[in-house]
Amino acid sequence: MNESSNRSNHVSKQSSSPADHYLSRFHSILRNVLPPLTFGLFVIGGWYFISYVILDDKKRFLLQPPHKVLVNGFFDWGGRDGMAEMLQSLWSSTKVAGIGLFFAILIGFVLAVLMSQATTVEKALFPYLVTLQAIPILAIVPLIMFWWGSGQTSRVVVCIIISLFPIIVNTLFGLQSAEKDMHDLFTLHNASRFTRLKKLMFPAALPALFAGLRISAGLSVIGAIVGDFFFGKGEVGLGQLIKRFSSELQGEELLTAVILSSALGVAVFLLFTWIQNRVVGKWSDRAELI
Q: Where are the domains of the chain?
């Protein structure tokens, strides 16, 4: 019986040729690439339909067709000076988003750890964190300007406020997700609070922690654009370019700035996804699709 099963396994291994392996790989890539590519073509087709069918010639500046945005917005950029300004603005928004996200991670992780170690601290802080998250950022822009001025510091503060809550909530959820039996095992071995946090709670929190980081990474980019839109002193960012192009009715340049903002958010999201796959590993089959 064992000889027949081993012989069948040997035959099955020989039957899987390298061509079958590459064909299976190709089908896997096709399943992952074809749906977003199809939807993207559908969006571009709708974009052309709106530009040439719904809008007349006088209103076409509201939504220029994709090829004009590509040529005038990305390939031209208003000459060398326009290209330098666009790239410098992208770098300025990237710095603001990165600094704000760094401080949000630092503050959020410390608060989540404190809340996980003491229920009283969690009950005391959580309602105010929810309140901070519920306040529209536009409502506190005058206060931010009054306290920190209208420069880069205020933009960083906006990034911190917008991206702080997901980090705290997801990290706290992850720290509290360790199994009760494992806690009992650590208690049985008289493990210290720090040992329990380091060897049990923190490893259990990694998937939820990185989920919060990916959400907050995109929100930090939004905070950088919004902050730059309202605080005009200092380096020119993408938000100021969007504001200027909108007021001057420069459709191609406006869409270019918007696309660059979205690309920045996607790049930061993919960066933290890559870090998650290296640190945590692929926890589910859907991780391969991200």
A: 2-58, 86-289
Single-letter residue type at 284: S
**In whole angstroms, how far apart are CA 39 and each of 44, 112, 263?**
9, 39, 17
**CA dist 143 to 4, 16, 45, 286, Å?**
78, 67, 44, 43
What secondary structure letter does DSSP report for 60?
A: G
Please tell me the distance from the alpha carbon of residue 199 to that of residue 26, in angstroms, as a whole number.
40
Distance CA 99, CA 223 (A): 11
Task: Give residue 45's identity as a one-letter amino acid code.
Answer: G
Nearest to 73 by CA among 210, 259, 233, 264: 259
| pLDDT value at 61 more than 50 | yes
Model confidence over 210-236: pLDDT tens digits? 888 888 988 898 888 888 888 877 777
Q: How far is residue 49's CA from residue 55's CA, in Å, rounded to a whole number?
A: 9
Task: Look at residue 104 in the predicted model and tell me its pLDDT.
Answer: 92
Lowest mean pLDDT among 18-27, 52-61, 137-146: 18-27
Q: Whole-model pTM?
A: 0.74
Find out whether 267 and 94 touch, Cβ atoms under 8 Å: no
Rounded to the nearest 10 degrees, how much is the dihedral formed by the CA atoms of 211, 214, 215, 217?
150
Fold exhibited by the domain 86-289: MetI-like fold (1.10.3720)
Task: Tell me what pLDDT residue 68 has.
Answer: 74
164 and 216 in contact (C-beta within 8 Å)? Answer: yes
Q: What is the pLDDT of residue 81?
A: 55
Per-residue model confidence (pLDDT) at position 103: 94
Q: For the chain, what percentages of helix, strand and coil (3-state, to nearest 5) are there?
A: 85, 0, 15
